[in-house]
Design a protein that fits this description.
It is a single chain. The chain is of the alpha+beta class. Helices cover 36% and strands 22% of the residues. It has a three-stranded antiparallel sheet. A two-stranded antiparallel ribbon has the order 1-2. It has a two-stranded antiparallel sheet with strand order 3-4. α1 runs antiparallel to α2.
Length: 211
């Protein structure tokens, strides 16, 4: 089902595990796209934007994928651009490993996000860090900006008491109103995940697919 370019990428993995995960994730992506488009998986034409975001040649359905550990997360949308991110949940981090995460937050998160993170009890900070990280990554991937968009140039919610949302951006006061963020961490135990969608959306329909 994979394209020649995807087969070449698979062969470049040095780890059998990583190669296998890449192949399975790409095959699932093509199977799901083929289902939505009523096309053979191998016939689906995927191209990449300037910053590497995958898209269908000719436009139409927006999609995105992310994987961590044994989980691959896919999103498909006819409402607008979509991005996803999934990370392994390390909620039990403490000591130096938690301090490392907080140093990363100081470097990559906005001032407001760092204040919110520090305001939480230490037992909640590891999960809050990953909650913030996945929401920011999903937003950046949906926009297709890649590394050009600094993570500290916009704010998202991270506290367990606040619903997922884009709160502010450096470049536009109107930008947050264009986006919907969804926390989909309940899809799999041991993972934290988020979906970002541009435009009006009545909600996220969740489905589980086993390889």
């Amino acid at each position: 089902m994979l394209s020649p370019e995807e087969q070449d990428r698979a062969e470049r993995f040095s780890s059998d595990r990583d190669r296998r995960r890449f192949i399975v994730a790409r095959a699932l992506l093509r199977s799901l796209l083929g289902h939505y488009l009523a096309a053979a998986p191998g016939a689906v034409e995927i191209e990449y934007g300037a910053e590497g975001k995958p898209r269908l040649r000719g436009g139409g359905l927006s999609f995105n994928l992310s994987h961590a550990g044994e989980i691959a997360l896919f999103a498909f949308s006819v409402a607008g651009d979509v991005g996803v991110d999934v990370e392994l949940d390390e909620a039990g981090l403490a000591g130096e490993r938690l301090a490392q995460r907080e140093r990363l937050a100081s470097r990559f998160f906005s001032a407001a996000e760092n204040r919110d993170l520090r305001s939480l009890p230490s037992a909640l900070r590891a999960r809050a860090f990953l909650t913030c990280w996945t929401r920011k990554e999903a937003f950046v991937k949906a926009r297709g900006d890649g590394l050009k968009l600094p993570l500290h140039s916009f704010d998202v919610t991270l506290s367990p008491r606040d619903p997922a949302a884009v709160l502010r951006t450096d470049w536009s006061a109107e930008e947050p109103a264009y986006w919907r963020l969804y926390d989909v961490s309940e899809l799999a135990a041991g993972y934290i995940a988020a979906v970002a969608i541009r435009g009006e959306c009545s909600g996220v329909i969740r489905r589980e697919v086993c390889a």
